[in-house]
Structure formats: structure tokens, C-alpha cells
Amino acid sequence: MSGMPIRLRLALAFTLALAAVLAAVGAFVYLRLGDSLSEQLDDSLEARATALSALVRNGGQLPSEQEEGFARLVGRSGSTLLTPGEVTRGRAGSFFLARRGARLLVTPIERNGRRLVLVVGTSLDDREEALEALLAQLAIVGPLALLLSAAAGYLLAAAALRPVEAMRRQAAAISSERLDRRLTLPGARDELRRLGETLNAMLGRLETGLARERRFVADASHELRTPLALLRTELELALRRPRPPAELEAALRSAAEEVERLTRLAEDLLVLARADDEGRLPLRCAQLSSDELLEHVARRFAARAAEEGRKLEVAADGTELVADRLRLEQALGNLVDNAMRHGAGTVGLEARGSNGCVELRVSDEGVGFPPGFLPRAFDRFSRTDEARSGGGAGLGLALVETVARAHGGTAQARNGEHGAVVSLTLPVDAE
Amino acid sequence: MRLLVVEDELKMASLLRRGLVEEGHAVDLARTGDDALWMARAVEYDAVLLDLMLPGIDGVEVCRRLREAGVWSPVLMLTARDAVEDRVAGLDAGADDYLPKPFSFAELLARLRALVRRGAGERPIVLEVDGLRLDPATHRVWRRDAEVELSAKEFALLEAFMRRPGQVLSRLQLLEHAWDYAYENRSNIVDVYVGYLREKLGRDSIETVRGVGYRLST
Fold it and tell me: What's the complex ipTM?
């Protein structure tokens, strides 16, 4: 059944239902006809009995044989027609009975002081014939009607489903290359139109999703190619002619820097891609204290800060939190790196706990974010024009926000009194 | 050669300059599209190396504006974007070549040499002759600001005329530029299509030069 096309199933169900209805109607008509034929018979028997009773009471003779049937007078002893018991019953009052293919009416009657019964009867043959004829007609007309309506049902179902098939064919032609196409909607405001609208809305969502994905891949490959291009050109230039060791060393240092940049980029991309795959970044949470966390991050940048003559200040209140240490260090590391790269002056790392939340904040004393950049600060691959030339990929802040969200918290970027301020606000217990 | 390198990634820019200077070229650097525009207008560079992604106006736009301003220095686009659409957009904006990053420095030099060999003559993106405009990239034609619908063949024939303004072209020359070997010299197909063009562009748009051929009226 389930393998059958819907139009066949519909036609079949329709036909079965119609067959049941036709059978019920046929049976009803048949029974009603039988009943009304019986009533007619009884009426005519009663009329004859009344007429014959009057005739007999007036001393007349019963006609021996009548066209409509027969009539007899039966005494107490009964006859071939009636048992004595039936005669007794008949003397008390009239009743009908059927016998040998005939219907009989037994009525009491008195003749010359004797109490007899008058039996009038008529054959049931006519009634049977009429019923049989009806049955024969039903047997022919019924299946014929059934056949016609089954065919009509099939055609109707096929016609109703034709727009569905048209829609299916259109949908089959929509590939990931041509996701801008939409199904043409039927004109009538019916179920099919609603289905079409729903499918079109789904296609719209798929298209946006795919476009976002493609943009991400394009941006990511652009970001990966830039350090690769630098690496390749640097090494190729170094090898083009013999060079003094100092020049070679400089080239190698620059190449190492690009490898470092590639590594960081690959790590950020991996985290972001993993957060995409599973909807949320999987965390490995452990108990840690905020001052220890910030000190650790600051230590990583201590050498670079000293080299660049910058100061790192840690101010933490030691709030205990349950969080993924590695991810938080990665996010804070990105922020400190940004502050070192694009900011100026002292880089501050602060942690403050209040009512079940902890705020981790990195600030610097530079010029801050360009105002136009703030609304899209956390978008992937979005960066200031200045950061673009400096080799930033625009993933650092996106990663910070992903990590904050994974912990059930938020990330904010703003311009403070002295420069850029980026903070993560996390619940104390991320689990 | 005097070269202009337009690149906003500082490290890439200085690397390119170092490599090109070592090859004996004179190299100027521009960090933004705006800088590139005024520098290229001020000096006749032998070639411009143009990055596609720039702060402010991007490489494609820089290229288009350079051509509009009548700067015909060969432009070599360098970019980490290598999608077909990006390359098409760059070349159609008037760039002469396109090299995706990461590239080999040796190839970059070879391409620069090839570009300079071709020369810096006028290579307009949109052909313009006396009120007629034809854009080969979008396949559109305008006659005094009104767009004219042409079939592919009519378009090819008109392009053959517009690339040689004022020149008399014989039937054979026209046949060679717009038709392939399947058409014989005997057929009058060129006359038929010249008739179509006259119908759409005006009676006197193409002159008949008796005994020689046709010429685009100027």
C-alpha cells in the first residue's frame, strides 16, 4: 500500500468508501421495497376479506377461484391449509401468515350460527419477482457506477497532485549552485501554496547559510594565503642570490614570524569551526582562580612587553570560577595581543567578581577603536583598516565572543577613558 | 623600469619593493587606493602592481578610475582572492593581468616583462567612436546614450569596425574578423549584416566605399 502512488491510493480509498455506501443504499432500497410490497399485499388481502365476509354473511357463496388469489372457509377441524390450532386462533381475531409461497389472512366469520374462519390468500410470486428484478438491476448499475467513479476519482486525484509534481521537478532542479531560484507558487491561496511558501522560506534560509559559509571559506582562504604569500616571497627572495648571514637571518626571522601568524590563525579558525559544527564550543571546565589566570596570561607576554617597553598590570580580586582554562587563556591572549599591537601605553588585565558573575577585562591607553568599527567588532574577519595592514586576520575578537558565549557569558568592546576596553562577563560556574 | 606597488600589508609591500629594487627597478609604494590614484596620474609608471583588497576604494575601483582618467600604464593585479568572479571583475575593470597570491617571485617578474612588452597604448575597456559606445564585457551598445539591441553577429561586426575607426574594411577583412571558415567569400552575408547594422544605427552610420568595402563614418 505504501509503495503505491498517492493518486492510486486516493482513488482506491474513495472507491472502497463508495462501494460501502452503494451497498448500504442498495440494501436499504431492497428492504424498503420488500416491506412496501408486503404492506400492499396485506392491504389488498384485508380489502378482499372484508368484501368476502359481507358476501358470506349475506348468504352468498364464495367464488371458487379469483384472479387475485383464493378464498376458503375453514371449520374447526382445520384443513390442508390450516391446522386446528390456527383455526382456533383465527376465530379469536384475524392474523396473517405465510405458507407455501403464499400469504394468507385468517379472519373470523359466522355463517348460519357456525363460527368459521375465512382464509384469503394470494401468491407471493409477484413480490419475489419484483425484488429479484431490483436485485438484478442493482447488481449491474452498482459496479458500473463504482467503476466510473473510481476512474473519475483517479483522474481528480491526479489533477490535484499535478502541481505537486511540478513543484517536485522544480525543487529537483535547484542545486547548491542555483540556490537563488525559488518554486513558482500556484495562484490559489490553498495548501499547496502554503507548502510552496514554506519550502521557499526554507530555501531562503539555506541560501543565507550557504552564502555565510562561502564567505567564511573565502575569507579564511584569503587570510591563510596572505602569510603564505609573505613566507614564499621572503624565502624565494632570500634564495635568489648569495647573501650575507645577517640578511639570511633577517629573512628567517621574518619567515618564523609568518609561521607564528599562520599557527595562531589556524588555531583560531579551528576553534571557530568547532563552535560552528556543534553549535557550541565544547568546554573542559575546571576550578580556577581569576588572579592566577590573569597572571599566567601576563607572564606569556612579559618578554614581549619588556622588549617593546610596554607595561602589563594585573589587578584581580581572586574570584574562583569554573571554566575552560585553555580557551580563556586563548581569548585573553588575543586581547592582550591586540592591545600590544594596536594600542599604546600600559595594558591592564583586570578581574572582578560580583553576584555570581566575573568580569575579565583587558584595556590599553591607545586611541581606542574607530567608532564605525564597534558595531561589527565581533564579526569574523572584520577589522580596522589600520589592523589590516598590520596583518591581523580579524578573527581575534570573534574568537573572544565565541569563548564567552560557550561559557554562557557575553563579550563587550568599547572605548574607555584612556583607550580600548574589551571585557568578558562570565557566570562563575560555566557548568 | 619605474614601478608602483599598491599594497596595504606593510610587510608584503616592503618585500616586493626589496625584490624589485634588487632587480634594478625603481619602486614607489602606495598604501591606499587614493594614494595610488594621484601617484599614477602624476608619474607615467611602466607598470602598476595593484592589490585587490585595499582600505577605502578597492583595487578594482582604482583600476577603473585610472582607465577613466586616461592612465594606460599596464596593471598587474595581485591578490589572495582567486575566485573566478574576482578575476573577471579585475580584468574587466581594465587590469592587464591577474596573479593570485601566493605567487612565485620569478613568475611575477616574467609577467611584468610580458606586460611591458605589450606597451602602454590606449586600451579602453569600452570602445567609443563618435557617439557610438560598445562594451565588450557586458555586450551592450549605445548610440548617443540610447541603448541599441544587437544580435551576437551584429555585435561582432560592429566591434570589428569600432576597433579600426576611419579605416576602410574590405568584405574579406570583415568576414575574417566576424565569421569563421564555414562562410565562403562568395556569399553576400557581410552586405546583409551591414544592412542590419545600418537599420539599427542609422543609414549613414556605415559608408560604402565603392569597389573597396565599408568604413565606419566618423
Answer: 0.70
